[in-house]
Amino acid sequence: MTASSTTQSDWVAPARVRPAGGASWRTVAAQECRDLWLSGRGPLLLFAFSLLLSAFTYLAATNQAINFLEQREAVNLTMQIAVAVGVLVTLLVSADGISGERERGTLESLLLTPVSRRALVLGKLAAALTVWFATYLVSIPYIWVLGRGVSIVGQALLLSLVVGTVLAVGLAALGLLVSALSASNKVSIAVSFFILLALFAPTQLPGGLPKGWFGDVLARVNPVGAGLHYSTAILVNGHEWTRDFNYLIAPGVLVVLAVVPLMLLSDRIVQLEPGSAR
Amino acid sequence: MRARIWLAVSIAVLAVAPVAVWAGPAAAVTAGQPGNPLEIRVEPARQSAVIGDRVTIRAQVTNRGATRTDPLIAHLNVASLTGTYVDLEDWTAGPTQPVAPIDPAATANVSWEIQAVNTGSFDVYVVLLPNGPGSSGAGPLVAGPPTHVTVAGRRTLNAGGSLPIVVAMPLLLGAVALAARLRRRRT
């Protein structure tokens, strides 16, 4: 929620914004979405995202080195990049959620509105997730163009929706937690970016993770690696959806470990100064 | 009359021979080495694939001797018959598998799922290496019969077909982002 004049007037006039009960988070989410998408920040992120996917899709379709891969692998690679970058953008938007408001000086007026802090973070979480769903919609034509002719386009789209949404919810909640606890917006974004890189790095090891029980545990514990492994097992190796289902435990645990503390501790951590008492 | 019989037999043999030759390698093949009790049976003996396909190679190791074997290592290798460079890591992530000691007259099964990543003709074969305290590094090695894999090429991706999407999407989203910026400036 940025400090535009219309936004401010919406928030400081309690008579106009006195949503009752569960509706309050929806009001926050609607306002956040307006700020995100009408300010041009969201469309700009989508434009950059489409440039990246276009470059990769063209390379996958023309480059001989990549072209030897089976079509399923090309679709899987594109889907993984779409999920990874979509989740990254969602995480960065949520990492700006609380600490950004603090730095722009708009958090105080936001806290004065008759909206609970839990509704505030829930609304911000919902707004951040719109970025993920928008990147998902943008990725659909790319996956379709690479996967048409084989019967995996629908499967790939459903997989990226399921795996990507679970990861996006978990990481966006984590980004908001980091944002609420960080002393500055730079720290929040840097820490969130580092977390995502740390989760992605093991998936990019040459030759994959080490074999044996340790590598297996690492593959299952890392929510990003486990989610991408699950999609590869279905799309490339042709496994049944239920066969590797336990790989979705780690992304599910991430959602619980990030969303539950965020909701329970929102009254304590959403403060004008990080770490100060209410 | 005799000449006719010979002619008929010859025609019959010529007609049946290719079928026999074709049918022969399709079944599993077995190989062992003189003096070595281990025998390897591999299937399939012949496989045609298109690049990118996955092929499962199954080996059945039988101990024909009277004593229990040492622990073994089963190693799969891919050799090109057409001069294509083969990087084994591209074909399989785990070419080497341990085989527990095999009792007399018992068998052990090992399998590999390989992905055909090069075009051409290849022989895929399994080698058994002893890996006991006394036999490790001493041999002898036992090689199984080869599985002949013929891999045909395929160009699955259509660069021309992807071009409209690759160009149109950024243009469309760039226009939307620009419109949002201009709208914000006006307000």
Features:
heterodimer, A: 278 residues, mainly alpha, 14 helices, 0% strand, disordered N terminus, B: 187 residues, alpha+beta, 4-stranded antiparallel sheet, 3 helices, 10 strands, 30% helix
Report on this model:
The complex is a heterodimer of chains A (278) and B (187). Chain A has 278 residues and is mainly α. Chain A has one domain (3-269). Chain A is 74% helix and 0% strand. In chain A, helix 8 packs antiparallel against helix 9 (153-181). The model of chain A is unreliable at 2-18 (pLDDT under 50). With 187 residues, chain B is α+β, with helices and mostly antiparallel strands. Helix content of chain B is 30%, strand content 35%. In chain B, the strands form two sheets. In chain B, strands 3, 5, 6, 8, 9 and 10 form a six-stranded mixed sheet that branches. Chain B starts with a helix and ends with a helix.
Strand-helix topology:
The complex is a heterodimer of chains A (278) and B (187).
Chain A: H1 5-12, H2 23-38, H3 41-62, H4 64-67, H5 71-95, H6 99-104, H7 107-112, H8 117-147, H9 153-181, H10 185-200, H11 213-221, H12 223-235, H13 249-264, H14 266-269
Helix pairs in contact in A: 2-8, 3-5, 3-8, 5-8, 5-9, 5-10, 5-12, 8-9, 9-10, 9-12, 9-13, 12-13
Chain B: H1 2-26, E1 29-32, E2 38-43, E3 46-50, E4 54-63, E5 72-80, H2 88-91, E6 96-99, E7 107-115, E8 120-130, E9 142-143, E10 147-152, H3 159-186
Parallel strand pairs in B: 3-10
Antiparallel strand pairs in B: 1-2, 2-4, 4-7, 5-6, 5-8, 8-9, 8-10
Brief synopsis:
The complex is a heterodimer of chains A (278) and B (187). Chain A is mainly alpha-helical.
- Helix and strand sequence of chain B: HEEEEEHEEEEEH
Form type of chain A: globular
Low-confidence stretches of chain A: 2-18
Q: What's the alpha carbon Rg of chain B, rounded to whole Å?
A: 27 Å
The overall strand count of chain B is: 10
Number of domains of chain A: 1
Shape of chain B: elongated
**Chain-averaged pLDDT of chain A:** 83
Helix percent of chain B reads: 25-40%
Number of beta strands of chain A: 0
